[in-house]
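Thread: Newbie trying to understand structure tokens

Hi all, I'm a second-year student working on a class project, and my supervisor (Dr. K.) asked me to get a predicted structure for one chain before our next meeting. I've only ever worked with sequences, so writing a 3D structure as a token string is new to me. If someone could post the tokens and maybe explain what I'm looking at, I'd be very grateful. Here's the chain:
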Amino acid sequence: MRIRMTSLGNGLNNTSHKIRIFDVAEFSKNDGPGARVVVYFQGCNLHCDWCHSPHSQPIIAPLLFNENLCTDCRRCAEACPQNVHEFDSGKHLIDRSRCIRCGRCIEVCPNSVEGVKGSALHLPTTELPVYSLFSQIGPYIRLTGTSGGITLSGGEPLTQLEAARELLTLCKSHGFHTAVETSGLLRPEVYKSIMPLVDLWLFGIRLTTGKEDGLHVERLRQVLDMLASHEAAVLPRIPMIPGFSDRDEILQLLTELLQSHHLNRICLGRWNKDFDHYYNQSGMPRKMDVPSSKQIETCENKITTFFKSSNFNLI
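---
Reply by user tm_fold:
Sure, no problem. This is what the structure looks like when written as tokens:
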């Protein structure tokens, strides 16, 4: 969905919080019950080794460049006031440290359209008032009917807590079903503060976030304890990451954590086959090698078999 920077003209611009997003999906079938409008919040407090959306991590996303769509016309280099774009021996080079995100390169590029993520050049982050965003996505949420709704995702949506609260409040006032996808690795008070506004928590459980990190079992336990005490609806989502979530000690700890909170219905997330896509487009370095097809297959088979044998209901 292409989000427009609009002027509301009704006095609500001054009171509505600003929200930073990098994408909106109109009718997702994988982010909660029914069809969902998914709002992807910019910014994340984690930097998981296997993150497939590294451009979502900073406060503002870097300029994305799809070299396969570059025609070598060099108009971007001529238009850029910061000399971000250079051409050397037929190679298009980008120095993002100079980029001020003015968008002039996008304006002159024959294969780019402002706000369209499939362009040769793209600035993903859009900042606008929450109420303006809601006015644009509200009709789409309504089309999802009584079986669907809205899902706040990211990044980590609750790093923009006040914007998330306002958006959820607007959605609940219109009777929309709300879901929040989160790592569960923020303070319990953050989750408690918006609990009445959330119908379903999509809990993306990460017992570890990288080779240099420890285990986050106790942090997750504190949040799950709090949610359980309020009888909140929680659906654990477990990413199947070769070399991480398929480790025996991780699987055992996950089982104990989930069963202790009576969470026997879980969602297993397959490895994203386009893992390195946004690393290539953003110029951001990868923290892990791209796993082979065999490694991916072995990982997913092991995890699926393990949870089935442990009597979990997989969805």
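A couple of things are worth pointing out once you decode it. DSSP finds nine helices and 13 strands in the chain. Residues 7-12 have pLDDT under 50 and may be disordered. Feel free to ask follow-ups in this thread.
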